[in-house]
């Protein structure tokens, strides 16, 4: 009976196929993003299975990377966003966790002061990462933008 | 013997004094920041006791807010940065935690692609929060900038 | 110096004042809600300090319950929403946690099926609780409504 | 000896078979629910192995989806309801967790006010999800109904 | 303003008053239970603030123990049931936790076998503790009884 | 070298063999328990690998269920009792956890009152589950009995 | 009303009184233990409120240390044994935790080999600590003895 | 390329080989310990991979149990001591955890009283387990001995 | 009765007294350390109550800082070393935690390679912190030294 | 489709290849480090996949250990640094965790005293381990050096 269980491609499979094609074709994330006319942050995130490709973009990346047609379904389905480490251990990611710990109340206070009683959406949201040359050492610039959502009173 | 233990002002006391003066004088964080010629993010964070005031800035905020002279020591001492909630519950702060969970690996991948094997510093770091008007609803824009630090090989 | 630290009313104080007035005046939450022309769920939540009163509603509840004028500031300030128990122990609240555990993936799947790749907002949100008489035992009916938020692609 | 251990279909297998058939037949959860004359919420939940199919409903879904007869046993057995994440990370599910955190005490207070000292059952329970068109953006409406259970005094 | 916050008796105060009266009058829990015509398990639990006294029983225990009239309100209000230790450390309580860990799946399997797909209610529930003399050492007998609740299909 | 590692039957294998035979022979736990002249609770628990079969009982269940002779060793060896969920999520098991949380201090107080400073053993222990018909709905009755163990003073 | 709540001595108070008297009289735990004709381990543990004094021993320590008569009740009542740190941080205590982690399965295997399917009681239990002079450095010797308890089959 | 990864024997493999040989030869841990002239506690612990065999002892157990020569390397390498359960669930091991929780502060106090400011080493450490016949039930005697280590002042 | 509980100075009190005197006298930790002829690391740690002062050093710091004679007892008693944060949040301390996470297995492997099967003692241990000027930015140098402890075989 | 997923070498594979070659060639970490002209700490850490090899060093270790050319990519890619145990259980690693717990605040205080308001970098960082012979027992000397990073004010 177990033979009945022939699995189709999962989002993890699609990610693995993208990573292989990226190596094989010596592409960068910026290059892939440009190739499908999306931003690098969103493209990497969707390639990792943390965002869903709209159908047109799924077709674009399948074409760009010569992925199998069967990947379409996995690429377009809504992901279940799971992370295993409540506190991330990798130093590059931990520093962002630390920033939320140290500056979280400050972000909240300034959002309330500038907008009112509400939050920045993490759904209607975009982000970019840039390299800013600097004489004392280059700087990483991260820019987030999310729609302001006002708490409802009813 | 307990009488020997007359406590001086703590960083928490200094924060409380600032909050009272801010209310009494009807100031905003932006106003206070301008008054001491620093950014609003840093000013709020230092006022909350999460950053240390350089002596000149401590004197400036004491003057601006008519704080007691005794606050100087507490304002300038290096804080021990502690947050109690491993996962923050307040929705406004949680959304930033969620962004780190969802986009942490993406930030890492793009930093590696643009800079090499290293991280963005959370110490040599600055941040600003802006309100960006938008026809479909205003947006919160958060801009972080940290020095790129390359892993050492030795 | 500590004498400088005369505290103003906190949101906890405001909650305590409301609870006392509610007892003294023998009011129900439904009654209070009606008195300030808001819903019972929102009214209780704001009274507990988990939502901010708009100024007009703060004045209304001050009038209705004969609260001191000084409560206005605490009632209107944006709350920091904190809950201590990651898993709530009270059986009445735990059952809702259990429902999220059991039916969370189902809610997600049906939202995706009906709306697309997005979520129900917990900010642009309202809820009501009703008693539905039933011959085999009355039923609690809880109705939540939140704005659908579509994930951004950029 | 290990050869003795030929396993029969598990609930996970049954779920996988349902998901495949759903794709193959291009069905929606609403369609499947209608096909077996049950609600979409219950149908998805049972299909995920979080509820047990009564025998008639198991037969109905086997017929509807052309599942193998051997799935009957797995579909009808009582599930052990397990969720791995104490705090769910997927934003769509987390928002419901957040609602329980923010409004849990309110739900409790209003249930006590309307019914007495008791709880809403999560066992004698039903739920539905609806799409409510709205000019400022469609809304997700979730309606839960559970039997009121009064605490026993003895 | 803080003077406005004169607190009334809490459930913790009521518990303290009961414990003092119990000592002063040299009563046992069995004696108090008999005095208010309730079971010892329920009586102790309600005295600890983990269950609510119906008004008649609150009056009975006030009379029996000469509690102040003001305790009535605290005794009758619905408790928020909170326990601090996820895993209890006291050996006498831990052994019951251990029994749930070891025999939980067995209780579940036998309830399913005898009743169907459902659970034992912890709300419509009663319990008693007895001493059973035994030649090899007396035994503690604990008897729980809860209403069987069948999962709803809808 | 790895070929040297031919494994013998584990307790998990023995459990799987019992479950298969139970299905194949359409037996209940009560039926199996009767067949080996033990109680249903103990029989299920031992079959799950949470208790060790005395040799005679291992032989009895091997005979009753036509298990392979090689299962004898696994059935009789002392189990390492492990449960993965500190707080069980399955509602049927959680309710017992909840009872320990709510009534743990009560069980402790009454044991102290009836017996002295000691505990109920979870080792020299037995339990049974019964169905008690009731007009307002059948009830699950669980009866535990454990030897009283007095704390030693030395 | 709060004035009604005059508290009697708690176990923590009794511990504090013992510690003060111990200092004032320059006694050691060995000395106190000898003075009440009990072992040092038990005596310290009971003095810390982790064991209950039998009435005669409570009287003996009251006499020995000139404690107030009111301490009798607190000294003799059954303690609720609580420890706050799941993993103890103090190095002297952590090493014992480490020993349980490293040698726990070994203790289990040897108890099973020597006794059968059972455990060592932590209730019918005693312990002593000795100093064993040794040329390469003195050694701490800890001797535990607990009654063997056989698992029940029923 | 994966074929390059032919693994050698791990410590887990060595443990499995020892357990099989022990069964095949019907040996006890005491018997094996005697056969290699070491104590039963150390022998079991090293066999479980929680201690490293000195080369002579590794050869001895290889000879005694007819293990393959290739096991030598795994048996002699320093183990990484890992335990998965912060709080052990098996009752036989938990009781020792409980003893550390209840008597940890007592062990600390008596070590300080007898030796000074230091700890008992868990590295320069030995332990034995004995069966002590007793009329009221045999007792498990555990004897630990560790070198006293004095805190350094510098 | 509560009046009997006049507390003596605790280690926390002694720490507070030292911190006040340090400010009043404008001393540095290096200065205090020099004044009592101990190292700065040890001196700060003992002043924080994480190490015990030998009597001579306690007298030295009392003299140096004009502490009350009553502090002697608190300064010399063995501390219970407790830290509240399993993972420290302060960035300056977290980096050391991160180093243990990243390089822990490396430290272990090199200790085994250089010394054998054992560990570095954290008890017979000393540490120093130095500032090393460097053209690309000064460096913090931390030097730890602990006695090698070989695992015992017995 | 699954056949498309032929995986290339991972960092774990590269680690396994290094460990095998190290055994086969009877090398030490010091020997390997010398062979590629890097330090032993860095070499072990990179070999474990916790640091990235610069290309030249990757080629050097491939040559030294006769690794397959395909390992180059895995050796040079930026690792995601993950550790599973929040509190490490292996005694050799735990002692370093304990040092951070006990001396973390001391390290912080002395860094602030010597440098100002900042931290020691764990990225621009190096470490060495040495064996220091000592008459009372050899000592492990660990020397860490990290760039001082000053907090930014902006």
From TrEMBL, chains A, B, C, D, E, F, G, H, I, J:
The keyword Heme does not apply. Residues 82-154 form the Cyanate lyase C-terminal domain. InterPro entries: Cyanase, Cyanate_lyase_C, Cyanate_lyase_C_sf, CYNS_N, Lambda_DNA-bd_dom_sf. One of its GO terms (molecular function) is cyanate hydratase activity. It is an enzyme of class 4 (lyase). It catalyses: cyanate + hydrogencarbonate + 3 H(+) = NH4(+) + 2 CO2. It comes from the Bacteria. SMART domains: Cyanate_lyase. Catalyzes the reaction of cyanate with bicarbonate to produce ammonia and carbon dioxide. Belongs to the cyanase family. This is Cyanate hydratase.
